[in-house]
Write a structure and sequence with these properties.
Blueprint lengths: L1 E4 L5 H9 L3 E4 L11 H10 L3 E4 L2 H10 L4 E6 L5 H21 L2 E5 L3 E4 L1
Parallel strand pairs: 1-2, 1-3, 3-4, 4-5
Antiparallel strand pairs: 5-6
Length: about 120
């Protein structure tokens, strides 16, 4: 599974996803870094069939209006420490990867993984 991790999330998440056998890049690694516009993040993700991982609701709006990014994982855990966030995502990663086989828009809350139409 490929991921593009957005600016509000820690770079450590990218490293951990790579350690777990996935391919992940953080917006800091893109040419414009964390100033990379949402459209450019979507273009990068869609070009490599990656899922955008974000906390930014703007991506939900963009996906609703334009269908981009093709794959979207919204992290909706409210305030959470980076260590707990990494542990939480790692726990749910098998279900996330499995869901992305057939689905395109996922939301991870503290309670569950939600699959949106």
């Amino acid at each position: 599974m490929r991921f593009v991790v957005d600016a509000q999330l820690p770079r450590r998440l990218t490293r951990r996803l790579n350690e777990l056998g996935h391919e992940a890049v953080h917006t800091l690694d893109l040419p414009e870094g964390n100033r990379t516009a949402g459209q450019a993040v979507c273009t990068c993700a869609d070009a490599t069939a990656a899922a955008v991982v974000t906390k930014d609701a703007d991506f939900v709006i963009q996906r609703t209006l334009s269908g981009r990014p093709q794959r979207l994982l919204v992290i909706a855990t409210d305030n959470i420490s980076n260590s707990l966030l990494l542990q939480f995502i790692e726990t749910h990663l098998p279900a996330i990867a499995s869901a992305f086989v057939a689905e395109a828009f996922l939301e991870l809350t503290r309670q569950s993984l939600i699959i949106h139409d």
